[in-house]
């Protein structure tokens, strides 16, 4: 199932009502900015059948690979913003693998995506490795003849994370 939706959303429930055996909540469109998300959550709490309700939780979501029950509105808005910049799948592949949101880690480690085949992974590792080698001409030809591409791929498996998500490898480098 693909997670790419036009409007990702969350179902926010009032915990005071939930603990009293009453289902009180609402779906919130997550394309809103953080202030609008927080205002929508406060509106749900103010309309609660339990006076003074303050606590809430995410009881369902659509358009995300994973989402914590207590994900903060800032994190949700941040992910949706990066969905717009990088596409849905890289951001959700990151969450699917790393399980917690860290914007800086995502931005610093994301290297792109390739089709999720062994041959494409092998070619990516080889090409990236060779791009780092300042060897030219006959020396490069000789060097390439002696390379063990299998060892290069195994080395990349230690320094990179290849997250298979939606039939692509999304590559993150530590």
The percent of residues in helical segments reads: 40-55%
Please summarize the sheet with the most strands.
3 strands, antiparallel
Percentage of β-strand residues? 15-25%
Shape: rod-shaped
Spans with pLDDT under 50 lasting ≥5 residues?
A: 1-5
Q: Helical element count?
A: 8
Radius of gyration: 22 Å
How far apart are the first and last residues' alpha carbons, in Å? Answer: 28 Å
**Helix- and strand-based class?**
alpha+beta
What spatial order of strands do you see in the largest sheet? Answer: 2-1-3
Helix-strand sequence = EHEHEHHHEHHHEE
Number of strands: 6
Average of the residue pLDDT scores? 91
Itemize the secondary structure elements and their pairings.
Elements (H helix, E strand, L loop, with lengths): L8 E6 H5 L5 E5 L4 H13 L9 E7 L10 H14 L1 H11 L4 H7 E6 L2 H14 L5 H10 L2 H11 E6 L2 E6 L1
Antiparallel strand pairs: 1-2, 1-3, 4-6, 5-6
Helix pairs in contact: 2-3, 3-4, 6-8
Write a structural description.
49% of the residues lie in helices and 21% in strands. The protein is α+β, with helices and mostly antiparallel strands. The longest helix is centred in the middle third of the chain and has 14 residues.
Task: Summarize this structure as a short list of keywords or feature phrases.
single chain; 174 residues; alpha+beta; three-stranded antiparallel beta sheet; rod-shaped; disordered N terminus
